[in-house]
Amino acid sequence: MGSLRESLSNVIQRRFSSNEEAPISDEPDHATAMSRTGSRERDLTTRSLQMSRVRTADTALEQVVEQQLRLLGYRWISNDPGLPGKPDFSFPKLRKVVFVHGCFWHGHECPRGRLPKSNTEFWIEKIARNSARDRRQVEALELAGWDVLIIWGCALRPARIIELACQLLDFLEAQQPFRGLDPRDQ
Description:
alpha+beta
């Protein structure tokens, strides 16, 4: 296991030591969400256009995790409609699933999860509903005998990519239920 981690560490360091840009976040940029024209109609049109571009599957965050899973040699099912919450990655033979949560949309208490200053009441309710739905889906999966790992968007920075790969490896090879690490715990 130690040599696997060392070789994994070397592969990842070589891959990210080039001048690659950091993974792109699919989370909205709240500073530019409002048009500066002052026209409410224009603001709604601009916001609607921006929100329509937020993807639900194959996001940049998911692509970072997918790259690590591929390096680790795993095969998975993406967005399995047969499971509660359509997990981003499911491993049926292992009875394990991985969700990749954007910090804003799923209410993570980190700088990326901060609420916009406009229409705050709406966003509080929206994100509370998302979080409640997430909890219900995780409970349903666990009751059905699946182990669940949630990876937060803030954990997918290039500086933490080795840690991500090790966390995925530990989760997928664990024989007992795995409790993932929250980046805020460190």
